Amino acid sequence: MNTAALELDPRAIRAWAENRMVFIELTDGRLIGFPAARFRLLAAASSEALARVELCLNGAALRWEDLDEDITVRGIVEGRFQLPLPMALAA
């Protein structure tokens, strides 16, 4: 196993949802946010369900237990989303 690659994996120290946006704070200080509408299950979730986001795998992933949804922090950082940016947000 390449330990240098593991050290480069982005990790979150905090995650939260607000106004249909999901935010993460990374160990390097960056804050990243994305619309819940970029993922199928999150787009259909209630605001209350979105708010129940948890960090797992030592900050390498986000987990919504009630929705049975997991999203990697690396995927978020690299901009790998399931759905395109909604037109209302793209303008």
**Secondary-structure arrangement, i.e. CATH architecture:** 2-Layer Sandwich
The figure for the number of domains is: 1
Would you list the SSEs in sequence order as H and E? HEEEHHEEEHH
Q: What integer value in Å does the Rg equal?
A: 13 Å
Poorly predicted regions:
none
Give a short account of the largest sheet: 3 strands, antiparallel
Query: Mean pLDDT score, rounded?
Result: 91
Based on secondary structure, the structural category is: alpha+beta
CATH topology: NE0471 N-terminal domain-like
The helix count comes to: 5
How far apart are the first and last residues' alpha carbons, in Å? Answer: 44 Å
What's the total count of β strands?
A: 6
Strand content: 25-35%
Q: Helical residue percent? A: 25-40%
Q: What general outline do the C-alpha atoms trace?
A: globular
| Highest CATH level, the class | Alpha Beta
Strand order across the largest sheet: 1-2-3
Mind telling me the CATH superfamily name? Uncharacterised protein PF10387, DUF2442
List the helices and strands and how they pair.
Layout (H helix, E strand, L loop, with lengths): L2 H6 L3 E7 L2 E6 L4 E5 L4 H5 L2 H5 L2 E3 L4 E4 L4 E4 H5 L9 H4 L1
Antiparallel strand pairs: 1-2, 2-3, 4-5, 5-6
